[in-house]
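Quarterly update from the structural biology core.
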Amino acid sequence: MKKLTYIFGIVALGLAVASCDDFNAAPTFDDANAFVEVGTASISVSEDCGEITIPVTLASLKGIEENVSYATVDGTAKAGTDFELVDGTATLKFNADNRTQNIKIKIINRPGEYTGDLKFTVELKSAGSVNLGMNKTCEIYITDNDHPLASILGSYTATDMSYGKAAQTWTCNITKDPDDVTVVHIDALINFCAGSQKFDMTGSVSEDLKTITVAAGQKATSYDTTPTDFFMLITWEDGIYYYVDSEIVLTQVEPGVWTCPDNIGFISCESKKLYTNTIDRGPLTLVKK
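Predicted structure, tokenized:
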């Protein structure tokens, strides 16, 4: 009886070891699991970029020989008008020596014609004997270079002319509005905003592109430490009086150079207290980089 028990113990131990080996075995991958997918989910280009390439990879152990078809899907950008395939067959050919191929697309430039920013999609359609991977589409975004406010948009060096204090210099960016071509966004009218919080203020551009009018009273993002306390754009006088119903006007004195005589600041909506680094600053100058 003891001998029989011993034999059962040896068998059980063997099964346990075998089971453990199965558990620790490395996962296997064979070409039944081969798949193809695009290498990037999105690409942003300017309308004058010429030709773009979208990498597509077929993942397999041995290097399967297979043809993969693809297609474009119109969005605001239209095939034949805003872009066209370089290879009209819309087919990629893979083998052991060519595991990554590129979809090539020509972006059609229309200089002098404002179309707004455009987008379209490229998608893998059929992969033959292999699987389509998780990433089978790529969004293409085309930036229009002919925005009516192109001469204004960009990065600026901002400098204030101090009253009794050293002048400060920082970077200020003027960006376009996605929907309104008469509106811009300015991220740092005063040094208090630069490089920290998102204090984008909206400004209206005059028809002659000579002035940008920013309404005071606009609210900006709050500090993380006080998420309920928003900041309000203001004009002030002598560090005491603030005006939320006034306007801040930037005037272009020469191409790429803007000045503003107003005293600009932000006020905490909850505390109604002017922060020390927003007061006693003088007129503002912006010079395009």
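Confidence is low (pLDDT under 50) at residues 1-23, 274-280.
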